Amino acid sequence: MLLKSEIKQAIESQKQQLTGQSYPRQMLDKLKILPNFALVVSGIRRSGKSTLLTQLIEKQQKNSFLFLNFDTPKLFNFEFSDFALLDEIIAENPYIQTLYFDEIQVVEGWEIYVRGKLDQNFQVVVTGSNASLLSRELGTKLTGRHISKELFVFSFVEFCEFLGKDKNAEAVEHYLEQGGFPQYLQLGEDEILNALINDILYRDIIVRFGIRDERSMKRLLLFLAGNVGNLITAGKLKQSLEVKSTATVQEYLSHLEQAYVIQLLPKFAYSYKVQLANPRKIYFIDNGLQRVISPSFSQDLGRKLENAVFWGLRRQFTELYYYNENHKECDFVVCQNSTPVKLIQVCWQLNAENIARERDGLLDAMNFFGLTQGWIITLNQEDKLIIDGKTIEIVPFWQMFGGIG
């Protein structure tokens, strides 16, 4: 519970901090505030959501809005009843047309308040760092009244533009080492990433979900960070981590996934039950963040490239799978409306020792799905194969993702 004066002070203090130039995110042009719809932007902590809101405010209007970030010490005691005080503040400023609420998911019942403001014809934009909380609450109280977008850390294009680098193989190697968190790239201190993962682990997961076995959660995080691109099952993780139940491991994985720390990639199968029965591949949100958690993994450049390819695809598509049939594997199956449209293999450098494996896995997937074109993404090789009327394009990462933000 707060005083009205405390909420006012937070609003005024935060409004002063909104000024100042920043690198324009490529998502900015894709954001539209529509009447009667809440615009919801979710993403991992420190990915730039607050900055994106600032840029959106600059783009939309400067004097007809209210901005409030709920994830600040001044508002830690904000309760649902305090929205009545916020309403009084809004009523005292009749020019306000648009409400920007940053990290609003920390207030229980926030979706009821947002629904009420939409009914009063306010435009509403909200952000949050937990996909699970947002999706669950949006699904109950804001069904049909919201448009959702996801903001990730800097893409390769944004990384190059932010640091003034040319898009080439050297820039890719730097990207794989440093990752894409804006504040880290600006200051270059690993302590920033260490503080970030601790913040996510404790505030977004352990405290929020009341997890008592902190040790097992930390061990799981360390294991996942060191096994990017590998297949995992909850059953095997249970044995390795010495956790009491498979259900607990699945719960921990879900928390990490919903906090945008990881994503689990299922095997492609036309049956959902078959998908669930098979191991999933693990991908970590950011190579820089992964590096500070698991330094020993930092030299596995092929895995780091595969991780970057996954997130490059994830920015564009939500239906992603891996292929594994006939003892052949293909790293990524990209689907649209449940239909496979693109097949991608990832290899740091094709050579005499690995080309048969990479080629044959891709060809088997192409035959399986009836596609005539596939891609092998490498660090810096560009070439082409034509086999039985099927074309395999060998392209550098910087070329494949050099025009995508």
Q: Radius of gyration, rounded?
A: 23 Å
Name the helicity range.
40-55%
Largest sheet: 6 strands, mixed
Please state the overall shape, judged from the principal axes of the Cα atoms: globular
Question: How many helices does DSSP assign?
Answer: 17
Sheet with the most strands: spatial strand order: 9-10-11-12-14-13
Q: Note the gap between the termini.
A: 41 Å
Strand content: 15-25%
Number of domains: 2
**SS content category:** alpha/beta
Mean pLDDT: 92
Number of strands: 14
What does this structure look like?
The protein has 17 helices and 14 strands. The chain is α/β, with parallel strands linked by helices and 405 residues long. It folds into 2 domains: 4-150, Rossmann fold (3-Layer(aba) Sandwich), CATH 3.40.50.300; 156-400, no CATH class. A 6-stranded mixed β-sheet has the order 9-10-11-12-14-13. Strand 9 (319-325) and strand 10 form a beta hairpin. Helix 9 crosses helix 14 and helix 11 (234-241) packs across helix 12. The protein is globular and about 70 Å long. The mean pLDDT is 92.
